[in-house]
């Protein structure tokens, strides 16, 4: 549609020759007398337009920044845009400025049908957001609208050739409004890159998008737009063979092409990624391209049998192994898992879904998948830690800090907690140039990318993910990739490890992790269900019956598909454990605290147990029980896990050497419960729980030794009596990293 103001200016230009040409300006009255009524009307309309526009801007008395009381760090800003005739604009740190469509004087909608309705309440202005498939959300006005820096990114695509001729699909975002040579920030992923846009970059990584990088994301082999064949965690190839390919060589070739072909890059490349892309980032640091100057593996998969996605100490993660294999290998793009409906027509509880099937072989047989999925076949045929899994173990290749490395992990990472901690430990002895850095926090998988003050019921007191991104991540990449004056390049000062300590809710900085002051201290699981500090354990025992037909659930039911609608998978590690503490098949010890107890470092379980079966699993949980009079009503009596892990008994003498347990014989089982940085406060209670099922996160151990639990027949699943023994000869205990 034509602009009427343009027509008005053109008509006024045509009457200019009619005006007097004397040396002095004509009087306003004379000019008005010379104009026809029609032209006079047009002139008055043009003169009145700015005033009308100003009045239109004043029609938004609710303009400002809005947020919820529990998340004040993520405000949405609404303001009038003078360049769009006063339209209402929405923006936030993660949302590009967007013009809203007026539905009424107080209601507006977006192009994707989110609706914002403003109300003036006794406490001030509020806005309620409603959108398809989401719960309504009400935000309060907290101040004036906030404006953010947004660069103008140009989006292009490329097919990048690898050394064997396979081409990989990449999406490239280049800032068009920055006129210096810029570094490249690369992420390689199996999850698809077609959705990378300027808006998605700002939404996912606002700090890095604001700093300005040439952003590149690439589909790996066999996924989405890339050619070739996908293989889950492709093993490392022989790099002495110039024709061999793996994720490391594909990263090398990708970087070489980008530096050569993208205009106005400064020859420096940073690589980053979370989870599977974290594994791919680690691989980019093994025999790296010389242009790679910094990497940040975040929640990287390092060894999916030892402690990441698919197995933990030999125990198979049944739901995750089933769901994730289905998602990645039934098609070239992500597929959705469905557990079906129950008899009432409701989504079926995953607990019942997997319990009714039995072994993983039955999961596969009843999956409806006609082709044989490679990873499922690996699960079935290679249950022990053989060369199939060892060849995928990245930890065996971490023998040099080839480039500055910032590893990030979460204490409550439900998928890859082991990976970042193991990567840091493997690299630390080789860190002669002080370029191996670690950041840990009370995050779930990847949640350091979010701006939030809590995970589940656990409150941080601050948006610690944003603090990490602004003060560490952004400065890390600027320091190693940029030279621009005024950038963050001179402000990266992390000495080695940053850890957000729960309990005290403070950032702690250490010269290494664990810090030198941390001391492993024994805490015995003594008689009368009491925890006794010290290495001299009094005689006693605790028994329970473990029945595979009635396993202990790992989280509150119902259990949804891992990445399905409404899934509670993401925060199960901070769920209140009172829902299982009272079960007869859970053994419990406790120690009330009359002083603060700070644990910083790795926790170990060392159990002496006997069983009436010939195999068995052991799960140990370290729990902080809050007092009944806690200041936060939501945390009164809450049982918060700080550390937890499973061990499959058949692997006590070697993960590659399964062997039966002798029934009735007291046997030692020792394993790691991972790192912690937590203050158990005075008035709280230290709890230790031991159980032998954790379903359906982990498949049930039949408790009768069979060569392959994946194919165990129903008759093998038998109840067993488990006895945890503690005496001077068999001191069942936890080793806790106590700070002075």
What's a quick, concise take on this entry?
Helix content is 20%, strand content 30%. It has 740 residues and is an alpha+beta fold.
Write structural notes for this entry.
This protein has 740 residues and is an alpha+beta fold. Among the domains are: 4-57, no CATH class; 64-143; 314-390; 519-738, Jelly Rolls, CATH 2.60.120.260. The protein has 15 helices and 34 strands. The strands form 6 sheets. Strands 10-11-13-12-14-15-18-19-22-23 form a 10-stranded mixed sheet, sandwiched between helices. A 9-stranded antiparallel sheet has the order 4-3-2-1-9-8-7-6-5. Strands 24, 25, 26, 28, 31, 33 and 34 form a 7-stranded antiparallel sheet that branches. The relative contact order is 0.09. Residues 1-57 have low confidence and may be disordered.
């Amino acid at each position: 549609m034509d602009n009427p103001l343009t027509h008005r200016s053109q008509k006024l230009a045509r009457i200019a020759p009619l005006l007097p040409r004397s040396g002095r300006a004509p009087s306003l009255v004379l000019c008005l007398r010379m104009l026809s009524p029609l032209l006079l009307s047009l002139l008055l309309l043009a003169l009145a337009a700015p005033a009308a526009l100003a009045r239109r801007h004043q029609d938004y008395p609710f303009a400002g920044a809005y947020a919820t009381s529990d998340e004040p760090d993520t405000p949405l800003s609404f303001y009038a845009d003078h360049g769009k005739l006063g339209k209402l604009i929405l923006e936030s740190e993660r949302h590009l400025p967007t013009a809203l469509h007026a539905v009424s004087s107080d209601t507006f909608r977006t192009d994707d049908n989110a609706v914002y309705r403003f109300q003036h309440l006794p406490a001030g202005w509020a806005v309620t957001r409603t959108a398809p498939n989401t719960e309504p959300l009400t935000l309060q006005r907290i101040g004036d609208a906030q404006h953010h820096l947004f660069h103008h990114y140009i989006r292009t695509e490329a097919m990048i050739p690898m050394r064997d001729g396979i081409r990989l699909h990449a999406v490239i975002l280049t800032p068009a409004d920055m006129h210096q040579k810029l570094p490249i920030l690369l992420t390689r992923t199996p999850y698809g890159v077609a959705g990378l846009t300027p808006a998605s970059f700002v939404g996912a990584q606002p700090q890095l998008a604001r700093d300005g990088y040439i952003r590149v994301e690439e589909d790996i082999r066999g996924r989405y737009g890339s050619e070739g064949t996908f293989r889950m965690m492709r093993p490392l190839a022989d790099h002495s063979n110039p024709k061999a390919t793996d994720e490391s060589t594909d990263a090398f070739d990708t970087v070489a092409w980008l530096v050569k072909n993208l205009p106005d890059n400064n020859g420096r490349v940073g690589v980053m990624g979370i989870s599977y892309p974290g594994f791919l980032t680690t691989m980019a640091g093994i025999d790296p391209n010389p242009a790679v100057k910094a990497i940040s593996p975040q929640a990287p998969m390092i060894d999916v049998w030892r402690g990441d996605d698919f197995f933990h100490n030999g125990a198979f993660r049944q739901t995750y192994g089933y769901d994730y294999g289905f998602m990645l290998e039934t098609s070239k793009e992500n597929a959705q898992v469905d557990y079906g409906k129950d008899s009432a027509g409701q989504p079926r509880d995953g607990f019942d879904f997997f319990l009714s099937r039995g072994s993983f072989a039955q999961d596969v047989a009843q999956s409806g998948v006609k082709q044989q999925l490679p990873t499922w076949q690996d699960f079935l045929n290679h249950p022990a830690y053989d060369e199939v899994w060892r060849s995928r173990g990245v930890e065996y290749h971490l023998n040099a800090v080839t480039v500055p490395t910032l590893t990030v992990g979460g204490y409550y990472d439900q998928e890859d907690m082991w990976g970042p901690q193991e990567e840091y430990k493997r690299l630390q002895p080789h860190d002669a140039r002080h370029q191996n850095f670690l950041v840990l926090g009370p995050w779930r998988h990847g949640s350091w990318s979010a701006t939030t003050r809590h995970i589940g019921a656990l409150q941080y007191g601050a948006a610690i993910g944003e603090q990490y991104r602004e003060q560490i991540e952004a400065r890390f990449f600027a320091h190693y990739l940029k030279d621009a004056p005024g950038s963050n390049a001179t402000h990266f000062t992390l000495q080695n490890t940053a850890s957000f300590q729960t309990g005290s809710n403070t950032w702690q900085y250490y010269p290494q992790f664990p810090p030198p002051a941390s001391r492993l201290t024994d805490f015995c699981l003594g008689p009368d269900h009491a925890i006794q500090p010290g290495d001299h354990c009094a005689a006693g025992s605790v028994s329970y019956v473990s029945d595979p037909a009635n396993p202990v659930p790992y989280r509150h039911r119902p259990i949804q598909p891992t990445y399905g609608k409404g899934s509670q998978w993401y925060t199960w590690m901070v769920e209140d454990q009172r829902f299982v503490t009272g079960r007869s098949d859970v053994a419990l010890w406790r120690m009330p605290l009359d002083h603060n107890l700070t644990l910083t470092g790795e926790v170990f379980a060392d159990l002496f147990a006997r069983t009436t079966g010939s195999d068995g699993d052991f799960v140990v949980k370290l729990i902080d029980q809050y007092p009944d009079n806690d200041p936060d009503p939501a945390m009164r009596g809450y049982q918060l896990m700080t550390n937890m892990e499973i061990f499959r008994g058949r692997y006590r003498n070697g993960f590659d050497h399964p062997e039966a347990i002798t029934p009735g014989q007291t046997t030692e089982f020792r394993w790691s419960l991972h790192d912690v940085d937590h203050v158990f406060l005075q008035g709280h209670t230290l709890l230790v729980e031991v159980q032998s099922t954790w379903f359906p996160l982990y498949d049930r151990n039949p408790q009768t030794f069979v060569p392959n639990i994946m194919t165990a027949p129903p008759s093998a699943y038998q109840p067993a009596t488990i006895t945890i023994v503690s005496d001077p000869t068999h001191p069942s205990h936890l080793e806790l990293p106590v700070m002075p």
